[in-house]
Amino acid sequence: MSFAAARSVKSSRWLKALNLRPEEAQRTLLLLAFYTLMSMGILWLEVSSAALFLEEYGAGSLPLIYLFSGLVGASLNTIYSGLQRLLPLRFAIVLIAVMMTLPMLAFRVGLGVAAWAPVTIFAMRLWMEAITDLNELNLEVTANQLFNIREIRRTFPLISSGNLLADALSGFTLYFLLELLGIENVLYLVFGIMMLGTAVLYWIGSSYQYAFPDSVRRRTDDSDNAFSARRLQSLIRRYVLLLFGFVILAQVLLYLIEYQYLEQLTGQYFSVATVAKFLGIFTGVLGLMEMVTQLFTSSRLIEKMGIFTVMGLLPATVMGLSLASFLLSLPQLLGAQALFLSLIAVKFLDEWLRYTLVAAVRPVLFQPVPDRVRARVQSQVGTAEPLSIGLAGILIFMVLAVCQATGVERAVQARAFLLITAGLAGLWLLVVYWLRSRYLNLLVMTAERGLLSVANANLPNLGRAIIEELTQSNSDDDKRSCIELLTYVDPNSVSSVLAPMLSDLSPTLQQQSLETMLEHPNANYTGYVEALISSRQNPVTLALALRYLWQTQSETDIQTLRSYLDPAVDPTVRGTALSLMLNQGEAKERAEATYLLGQMLTHQHERERVMGCRALGEADYMQGLRVHVPNLLQDESLRVRRALLDAIASTGLKVYYPSLLQALRYKSTREAAVQALVKLGNDALPMLIELAENPFKPDTLRNQAWQVIGRIGTLEALEILVSNLMTSWGITRRWILRILLKLADEPGLRRSPDIDTAIDRLGRQGISALIDQELAFLAQLYSSLIDLADERLGETDTTSELDWLKSALRDVQSDAVERIFLLLRFLYPSATIQAAELSLEGSAASRARGLEILDNALDIPAKRCILTVLDLRSDSEKLASLADRVAYRPLAPPSRLRSLVDLRHFLSDWSLACCFHAARAQRWSLTPDQVMACLRHPVGFVREAVLSYVETVSPRVLNELLPRLRHDPDRLVVAQVESLMAKRSIA
Q1: pLDDT in tens, 966-978
Q2: Of 192, 306, 321, 408, which is the most buried if we count CB atoms within 10 A?
Q3: Partners of 88 in beta bridges
Q4: Is residue 432, in this structure, part of any structural domain at all?
Q5: Are residues 445 and 335 in the same domain?
């Protein structure tokens, strides 16, 4: 193996271990480098400013920092938002990074002037607090531009670990830097490393310009500010208030613990250098612990314990340690030294759990909120963070003021803060408990409305919430939705939940419950089902109850079924009893059941025959009853034929599988045939793919075959769709794209669990390659339209046939653009792409809005080409934008037409026919291979056009071809052949 190949293999292994794809690696590493460098500078500034601040002002002045930093942070966020409206985004993010960095030089100058040193130290600490959140915001904005929603799930955990890496690097290096440079000169290093990070960010913006909109970001109006359902709106409002409380309490506790920690640190009377070194080592050890936890522990712990248990660990730990510290700090116990050590432990555990477990699960809290308002809710809750800093400062000031007014000692003051911390932690724990309840209720409500998939939900807790809703609701519609959701979330416990309430449900819900329980039968609940049989029930419920009992009982008496075989019994119940006898009876009982079921299948009443066919579908095999199938397939009753199609699929009667495909042809039996084929699952795939890929079959039938493959929905079926998507073209590709998109956009319960796996086979790179194919094809179309333009031909050479061809090429161009939009919906939210597509069909202002949406949404290399193609540009301008995909070489009109015919597999049937009509009218020659290939085209009117062309340009060849085409499958082609043969007196 060569060195390059070995290096490639090693690189791919690393990427796989990091869950990255090759096209994501460079962007991820660059953004990781930017975040690490900026975080290292901010952490060096934090440690240095903390040491200087404590020496100059002491910990008692920290509340002032908390108050003012909230104001400065809010101001910087306002400036950031304003810059995005004034500058293109890739310039705005770099300018913000420069603004964060430049004050470092001013701070160093200020520290060198004795009169300005105190103000400078205060400003340094204030600036550090303010730019920390701004740096996080800058990172998230850049990441959202560089990565789509699928990529960011893989890349952002690695990128966000840059903060942990910076903790370790900056913490341990600062100890030696302070020895070499001194605490004031470290600011030069802070400036240098942050400018290096800014340079990396500039490189990102320059290298990935396509990921950032060229235009500035403008304010958009949002008129959709309310939900139609008041109950859901009220539930979301209460949930958002709890999220506000969660964030505020979390941040207040963070700064309250930090104040106590630094207050105790200053009380030890260490030197400034000693404090800075201690903080450096503390930060380094903490960073290593966080890194190990993030990589190896967090995800496993969250999966095992659930998100709310994990979130409760931090407030529970803080409350427990604060109370323990309060007790240990009492004079009769360990005293002040114990208080110092315990606060170090509280600070360490708070930051460790906060920036690993809590940070990992916090985004999940927004998942129950419907998609269309989730971003708005996140931005609203985000304002709680700067607000909470101010609240922390006010709280600390109030406590200090009370302590000073009452003249309490410093040790008593510290113990008071510990009690306040424990109380706030307990309140935070209570908010987590309330959030858990609202979270589950909101999940149930939104799942019922099809607004959310439960894939990321805490399924055990969700199941309990569904059961609670099911028992308390009085609405049949709500209960029906809960039963469907419970079947998806916890199918194994369905019988235990539904069986005790069967007698209290309406007949419709009884049927739904029994059908659901039959999918997971359990012998422990037969008593509840027997109670239904003993009471008077409608025939459908009774039939389902009989089937449940016989599937769950190991020992059954076949004689108990005989009471249901009387002709007076409803056919639904009688048919079920007969199918049970066929499946579980002895030879004598099976013979009797076969005879009685045969009577039902040949009965003069339609309902008897329908129920007989359904009983066949419930039997394990047809035995001697298959002799009735041919007659039943021709039955005059449509309901009988539909029921028989299901029976064929249920019993696996392969000899009649072609009848299922035949039933797809007719509208009356199409849905029944589709359901039967879907029931066959993977067994139906070979004959369906054979039908779908047969170009000589009608398009309607082929489309139905693709639709059924999509509805089967297994991984094998979806992989067939994906494989054919990559190799098909034209209308077939459009069919497959729509099927896959429909499956991918299915909300909640109806979504196939394998669709993401199948689509991931394509990946971002594969979808981008398909888009490039479409753009290359568009380049060929533009080349043809330019070379066949009227000015190239002259007015005397233009014909209506040539106009047909150009019109057909415009239609093919529209089809290609439609496929590009369908492909884009795999990479970006469907609503965004659809909004842009609809806007492009409107007025000039609407088209500009659509292009603006795409400019801000797209982040693929083909972005500029797509925007140019969709803009109102000339064909030559559009072709110039596609020059890197297809090099344009002007051709004479006849040569260009021959080039078009060579692309016949990509053209529509009508545009290919127009090529031959135009060649005939213009008397342009086509190659014999092209003519013979198109004479074998599956579409009749294309063959007609070829014959018309041959008649005009080569009558001698036509005489040789006509006898071969006398038996063409298209009657119009046959009529044309006979007319031409009669005209030429060919026998």
Answers
A1: 777 778 878 887 7
A2: 321
A3: 216
A4: yes
A5: yes
